[in-house]
Amino acid sequence: MVFGFRKSFTVATFDGILIGGYSYKTILVLSQMLGYMLAKFYGIKYISELKRSGRGKIIILLTAISWLSWLFFAMVPPPYNIAFLFINGFPLGMLWGVVFSYVEGRRSTDFIGATLAVSFIFASGFVKTVGAWLLVTFGISEFWVPFYTGLVFAGPLLVFVYMMEKIPQPDQQDIAARTHREPMAAEDRRAFLKLFLPGLIACILIYCFATIFRDIRDNFGAEMWKEMGFFDKPELFAQTEIPITIVVLILVGSMVLIKDSFKAFMLSHLFISIGFIMAGLSSYIFIVGLLSPFWWMTLVGLGLYMVYIPFNSVFFDRLIATFKHAGNVGFLIYLADSFGYTGSVGVLMTKEIFKVKLNWVTFFSNSVMILSAAGLALTIFSTIYFMNKYRAIILKPKSA
Fold first, then answer.
1. Which CATH architecture has domain 2-399?
2. What are phi and psi of 327, to 5 degrees?
3. What is the pTM of this model?
4. pLDDT higher than 70, residue 104
5. Has residue 185 got a pLDDT over 80?
6. Which of 112, 149, 163, 221 has the most CB within a 10 Å radius?
7. Which element (helix H / strand E) includes 22?
């Protein structure tokens, strides 16, 4: 439901609108991403220190601010309405940490977290389909589509927030299996970073790669479909994302069956490695003309989400459970997210500042191949690093 207030504007191409010689849509995407990025940096402190009371009200307030920003975006003419994308992005950037705090630190976190995380694969495509449907069927202006899309999702959002507030707290068995989760003060955050810094740097770089290309695919999917000869087919957004959602949910959600957190943590590294291989290999096969556009968009998306989703669901939860370290997942997710969105913003700003004329399909496919190789190397390093840490911190005291 939250995606209904974020991504529907990307179905519009805003053809012919330039601001100071720059693409209007790219500036809109950048403005929203800047808001999102700054929210992630702020969230390192805010989400890591978040208490359990009042979370439902926080979700409703943040979403309401983002929705109102779409109203002003539609009412205020370009280029002045660009600022409302920033206002939209900042509150939305805080929401994932608030939502995930309901479900972390439980024996069922793997499945619930995977369901939550893959929901935004499907949600991204579904919201765009709703936006494109409003655009094509009702002839709603490109500027009003985001506001009306939010209207479609507002009622269900309130119902689901009410239901989330009914979720019980982790019980003693959850705490025994996954470690007690608690707010982290500044000294707690520093201690965690000091203990795992090299591995966390590798993980953050991996996540940066996945975030950059997930965002390009997400924000400029309409342009890529158009370049490949597909236009006015809103159903494509959902058709590619539904199989990705199902496959990733089965793969990541099945980790709930693995009781040993260290084994699950290592398995998540394997999923990430396979994701990089799939994204890079499918792009190569597409470039040489042996894979259709539909299957390329599906397979490269599946590969990227096999990297991206574990970090937003099981990876950090199992890291904390493996090493029995006090803290919460929100701190780690927002630490990774802050640098991930910095990378995404950096790519888009470089394109616009230097006026790089991109064919999105060519740029995306070639870049995915290169960074998939780098990502695979970093994943192997992370695997070895955390295996050694596990031996040093957990196994050695037992043997002693």
1. Up-down Bundle (1.20)
2. 155, -160
3. 0.85
4. yes
5. yes
6. 149
7. strand 22-23
